[in-house]
Amino acid sequence: MLVLGSNWLVDSSVAFARALGVSDLIIGLTIIAAGTSMPELAASIMAAVRGERDIAVGNVIGSNTFNILGCLGISGLVSRDGLSIAPAVLNFDLWVMVAVAVACLPVFIVGREIGRRKGLLFVGYYVAYVAYLILERRTTMPSTSIRRS
């Protein structure tokens, strides 16, 4: 049911976003990324609730590693012309990903614990990132003028 629900979430969200004129890049960075991560989120929450913290952390790190290396690698293998990377990704989103990885290092090395405060901080960072994407998209959208007769 979780996989089916994720598929419905992604499909309907993409349909709404396209109807609103949202670019495929923004759809991929937000809706599809969140929707396809729902099963991982559920598994990590259940592991944390059951006290199996290593599974929760390993699931997230392993999934991200596979997404970056495996999914991109396989997609590049099967693509006829290769995967072109949008300039927006290279100029902003790639650096956000690097910054997030660097921001996690002190948490993992020094604190070795992600409690409620740090969890809330991470969720806040994600909300800020998505808000930036949406606001930035609004400022770059062409304005339409309405003429009244």
Key terms:
single chain; 149 residues; mainly alpha; 81% helix; disordered C terminus
In short:
With 149 residues, the protein is mainly α. The chain has helices spanning 2-19, 24-49, 53-78, 87-111, 116-140. The chain contains five helices and no strands.
Care to describe what's here?
The protein is mainly α. The longest helix is centred in the first third of the chain and has 26 residues, at 24-49. Helix 1 runs antiparallel to helix 2. It has helices at residues 2-19, 24-49, 53-78, 87-111, 116-140.
Number of strands: 0
Shape: globular
**Helix-strand topology string:** HHHHH
Considering DSSP H and I runs of 4 or more, what fraction of the residues is helical?
over 70%
Overall mean confidence score, pLDDT:
78
Give the helices and strands, then pairings.
Blueprint: H1 2-19, H2 24-49, H3 53-78, H4 87-111, H5 116-140
